[in-house]
Amino acid sequence: MDVVVVESPAKAKTINKYLGSGYTVLASFGHVRDLPAKDGSVRPDEDFAMSWSVDTASNKRLNDIATAMKSADTLILATDPDREGEAISWHVLEVLNKKKAIKDKPVRRVVFNAITKKAVTEAMANPRDIDTPLVDAYLARRALDYLVGFTLSPVLWRKLPGARSAGRVQSVALRLVCDREGEIERFKPEEYWQIAAHLKTEGGQDFVARLTGFDGKRITKMDIADGDHAGTIKAMLESAAFTVDSLEAKPQKRNPAPPFTTSTLQQAASAKLGFAPARTMQVAQRLYEGIDVGGETVGLITYMRTDGVQMAPEAITASRDAIGKEFGAKYVPDQPRHYSTKAKNAQEAHEAIRPTDFMRTPASVRGSLDGDQLKLYDLIWKRGIASQMASAELERTTVEIVAEDGGKRATLRATGSVVKFDGFLAAYTEHRDDMKTDSDDEDDSNRLPEMRTGEKPSREKIEATQHFTEPPPRYSEASLIKKMEELGIGRPSTYSATLTTLRDREYVKLDGKKLIPEAKGRLVTAFLQDFFERYVEYDFTASLEEKLDEISAGRLNWKDVLRDFWKEFSAHVEETKELRITDVLDALNEQLEPLVFPAREDGSDPRICPKCGTGNLSLKLGKYGSFVGCSNYPECNFTRQLGEEGPTGDEAALADGPKVLGTDPYTGDEITLRSGRFGPYVQRGDGKEAKRTSVPKGWKVEDIDHEKALALVNLPRDVGQHPESGKMISAGLGRYGPFVLHDGTYANLESIEDVFSIGLNRAVTVLAEKVAKGPGRGRSAPAALKELGEFPEIGGPITVRDGRYGPYVNHGKINATLPKNTEPMSVTLEDAVKLLTEKAEKSGKKLGGGKAKKPAAKKASTKKASTKKTATKKKAPAKAKAAASGENG
User: Fold this and answer.
1) CB of 573 within 8 A of CB of 534?
2) Phi/psi at 727 (nearest 5 deg)?
């Protein structure tokens, strides 16, 4: 028997079917070891020695593999065919060697780009050793990421409170988003006009021609800069006679784009399906690992983390056969198409993402796939098959027209095109960026009517339209990945994770599909650009990626690369320790001027405090992050959240001090409306004993009058005595929203208005409904969003649910919250098992019910002796550490 180690249970299940009873296929569940998130995990002073830790769940899986090896003949490492997969195999082997589970048994590494019986069988027949240079490249990458993150992040914490972390690739990706925002802020729109003539042929057919020249001068997009100039031309054309000067019909070819890479798949799925990159990769992973199609589990696509655009020869042949069958012989080009990677720093050679069987059309697997899986498979199949189809043939027509009036002359052009043969367009059309043409001219898909040279079309109307240039668009997740790929920053396996990190750190936010940098993210970027410029340069990051690729090719020593990097980087970090906070703030004020000092509507100096009129505004660093404050503090307490414009309306009045709304008729204390760091609030009285209540969300500051303020500061209010207990029921506004309270029992209300209007009868009913649901159960358990299947070996259904605090997976009495930004419907059985196992271990609960067993206590008779021995032994490691420290010191 041979033991085969793969990464996921889904893959293990599929491969086990292919290999049969002579093999035991076990899953590692991804990486089994990682660098602990603490200082000292990578030690430059010890020639970059690295300490690895194994979590509880991974240790159990490794023990299972070690146990299986006792009766095995060979260990076969069959993890994914990339750098990360090679590293997982290396980690598994390292741990098993430490456990002495291998001994003299042979170890083989196999890789397959697709999970099909043919691919797996061929891979098993052609094993190799672990690729040491590929592992070295992984080690260098992990060490670099660790050293940058754990060296730079503490600098941020000290000099820029509120900043959470920096990273080698993460910070450069963030800079791209922030630089684009800066471009948008600095952008000044320019006016331009376009002129079009709506004409009619002698045969009575309408068409449109656009101005290209006037008075002997060629007219380009920005040449007509104002309405007066446009009006002059329009007036001339409205009295001019038009003549067709020339006609040209030119054949044109449009070639298909190559099959998908990780980056182009994410871009196309975003544009055509609305999928976020993380969602695309989750669905693609499932298609790769295997789907039950007609009773057989088979991988539908090749490996989905790749920047290669080539297909295997046998796949090209299969695609040409499928084209002939599905579309006809004329759609099969004379010669196969071959593509080459143009991305900077393209990774190890892998195939493009393609179907494992081109004869397996989307229609044929429709019943085996869920909605998202079918959409993505359809996209991959169409792009893959289109890449080997004949070119589309078009005819592009250009008509040049002359307009003359009293010695004035203008030229206009009308263009159109018609598809003569659709070619690959019969299978796949994409957004324009992916279309390859042999002309750089603007394409116009409108077909022009028949015309002849010398014909005199009649004028219907002349249209002059005003336009303004627009700033560059904000990045979407897909377009940011495209830019990163162009610059050679990051790799296919890291794109999606990098974007997730930026969102989790609250450095960027998604507004629809657009990435907008948060104020915190812009501060971090500005700080790094000012004081660590080299390490957020695009070229520097790309050159480091090139060195990592040189390591993986065996042409560079990984520790030499680390030594060169660390020598300069550590010296630079030491220099920043001398930085004063005032130096940092001065630099950030200049770097982020549009953000810190937004222009005011009245044109006044945005750096002067609007409250006291004499102080200068500047960035300030507080315990919870950065804000804008006045230099006259504490005499002037004006503050503004970074990224917010100056206050307007009643909020502007609050900037000048509290707004008096009246007095409390019961206490005589003054009631005021104020503005604080966390928003507007009402206050009764002064000093530490003053009663303060925030203005509820949804209430406008300008609508807060004496009556509303009085109601807010007198919360909670008494509703009435409960008819059964005689105890008072109150209504108020708490941390979790509006509520009613009776004898320690809280019940939520639907809106803040209910707090002021709810009567005794309704309050009693709401409380009774809460009590009927039982203690600790404010509502019934939510219905399952998705059923994932039975828990392996243990049994019992696993479901995805949406709870009060977000989506989670459930098995029996164990609930595990989904990681932030995870799509609930994309969670797989494998994901759920991992989350539930980790939750069970942390909580001490046993999967399937009950509590986990605790180690048996030692007998009382041996307790003293054991304690004494333990105490003696505990001192030895400490002395050993001190000795080692002295020797290495």
Assistant:
1) no
2) -85, 155
State how many domains the chain has.
Answer: 7
Catalytic residue among 146, 192, 303, 808: 303
DSSP three-state, residue 38 = coil
From 390, 406, 424, give the residue that closes a domain: 390
Half-sphere exposure of 84 (CA within 13 A, CB side): 16
Regarding whether 60 and 114 lie in a shared domain, the answer is yes
DSSP 777: -
Based on the domain organization, do 282 and 336 belong to the same domain?
yes
Q: Is 272 found in the same domain as 375?
A: yes
Question: Quick check: is 635 in a domain?
Answer: no
CA distance 286 to 368: 12
Contact 704, 713 (CB under 8 A): no
Q: Tell me whether residue 522 is in a domain.
A: yes
Please write the tens of the pLDDT for every residue from 592-643: 888 888 888 778 888 998 888 899 999 887 766 678 888 988 888 888 877 6
Total count of residues recorded for the chain:
889
CA contacts within 13 A on the Cβ side of 870: 6
Give the containing element (helix H, strand E) for 877: helix 863-888
**Considering the domain boundaries, does residue 651 fall inside one?**
no
Q: Could you say which of 583, 610, 628 is where a domain stops?
A: 583
Which of 806, 800, 808 is CA-nearest to residue 784? 800
Contact 79, 135 (CB under 8 A): no
Sequence-separated (6 or more) residues with CB below 8 Å from residue 889: none
pLDDT digits (tens, 9 = 90+) for 306-347: 888 999 999 999 999 999 999 999 999 999 999 987 654 445
CA distance 487 to 538: 7
Q: 790 is written with which tokens?
A: 């039975």
**Strands, E, within 55-190: which ranges?**
74-77, 107-109
Terminal Cα distance for the chain, rounded? 50
- Rounded-to-10 torsion of CA 469, 471, 474, 475: 80
| 452/498 same-domain check | no
d(CA 53, CA 40): 12
- Looking at the structure, tell me whether residues 529 and 571 fall in a common domain: yes
Are 247 and 146 found together in one domain? no
Instruction: Tell me whether residue 535 is one of the annotated catalytic residues.
Output: no
Dihedral of the CA atoms 875, 878, 883, 889 (nearest 10)?
-160
- Match 């050993």 to its residue by tokens: 880
Residues 5 and 78: beta-carbon distance below 8 Å: yes
pLDDT in tens, 522-569: 988 988 888 888 888 888 888 888 898 899 889 999 999 999 999 999
CB-CB neighbours of 51 under 10 Å: 12
**Which DSSP helix (H) or strand (E) runs through 501?**
helix 495-504
Q: Cα–Cα distance between 30 and 63 in angstroms, integer?
A: 15
Residues 328 and 219 in one domain: no
Q: What share of the chain is helix, strand, coil (3-state, %, to 5)?
A: 40, 25, 35
Q: Which domain holds residue 227?
A: 191-255+393-468
List the strands of the sheet with 806-811, edge to edge.
Answer: 784-790, 797-803, 806-811, 814-817
Mean pLDDT of 68-94: 93
| pLDDT for res 774 | 58
With respect to residue 804, please indicate whether it lies within any of the assigned structural domains: yes
Do the Cβ atoms of 769 and 793 come closer than 8 Å? Answer: no
CB neighbourhood size of 603 (10 A): 7
Copy the structure tokens of residue 267.
Answer: 């871009």
Q: Which of 265-269, 433-437, 529-533, 655-659 has the lowest mean pLDDT?
A: 433-437
Dump pLDDT digits (tens) for 54-79.
Answer: 988 888 999 999 999 999 999 999 99
CATH code of residue 313: 1.10.290.10
Residue-level pLDDT at 881: 32
Environment class of 379 (CB within 10 Å of its CB; exposed 0-12, middle 13-18, buried 19+): buried
User: What is the CATH classification number for the domain harbouring 68?
Assistant: 3.40.50.140
pTM for this structure? 0.71
